[in-house]
Amino acid sequence: MVVSFSLFETTIGSCAIAWSDRGVTSVWLPEPTESLTRARVVRRFRHPIESAPPPFISHAIEGIIALLEGEARDLTNIQLDFDETVPEFHRRVYDVTRTIKPGTTLSYGEVAERVGEPDAARAVGQALGRNPIPIIVPCHRVLAARGGTGGFSAPGGTATKLQLLAIEGARLL
Question: Would you state the pLDDT for residue 59?
Fold first, then answer.
């Protein structure tokens, strides 16, 4: 599979997006420098090609930028391309997570219920911790029970998660 990528500026820093001809394969939130963000892309894929984004990726980038500026954008129409290493359970978790609207949240347990496995809250957290497409799959909108932040595997950890939720106007308990 040929994977291309591009870096783009947002209100929180330089993000990256990678794609195949079938859709978005990955999104990276900012590292402290653009070169560190680029290095993460290169570690994830063998020989990715840095290039200008085609129209369907430009659309995704515009949506991400707008969302990170506080605009309530719906990114569910962006085509994703999960490779064969993404387990089926994780895909179901990502599908449910994509339905969470900006400014709202669900708990890990509520996502588990919606995927039909009410006792799988911990597995939901593990799936979201491996989410290759944050923002488009808005894992930052999933919280621990009783409004706790839970974890966040992106650079900056839970501080970044809280920043994203604040940008979206989410109310935390």
Answer: 96
For the stretch 15-39, what's the b/e string if a residue is b when 16 or more beta carbons lie within 10 angstroms of its beta carbon? bbbbbeeebbbbbbbbbeeeeebbe
**Please, are residues 51 and 4 in contact by the beta-carbon 8 Å criterion?**
yes
What is d(CA 27, CA 169) in angstroms, rounded to the nearest whole number?
22
Joined tokens for residue 63 = 């949506």
At residue 39, the pLDDT reads: 92
pTM for the full predicted model:
0.90
139 labelled catalytic: yes
Instruction: State which amino acid sits at residue 29.
Output: L
* Segments in the chain below pLDDT 70: 147, 155, 173
Catalytic residue of the set 86, 121, 139, 170? 139
How big is the CA angle at 124 (ends 119 and 128), to the nearest 5 degrees?
175
Domains within the chain, CATH numbers bracketed: 4-68 (3.30.160), 88-168 (1.10.10.10)
The per-residue pLDDT for 120 is 96
**96: number of Cβ within 10 Å:** 20
At 173 the pLDDT is 58
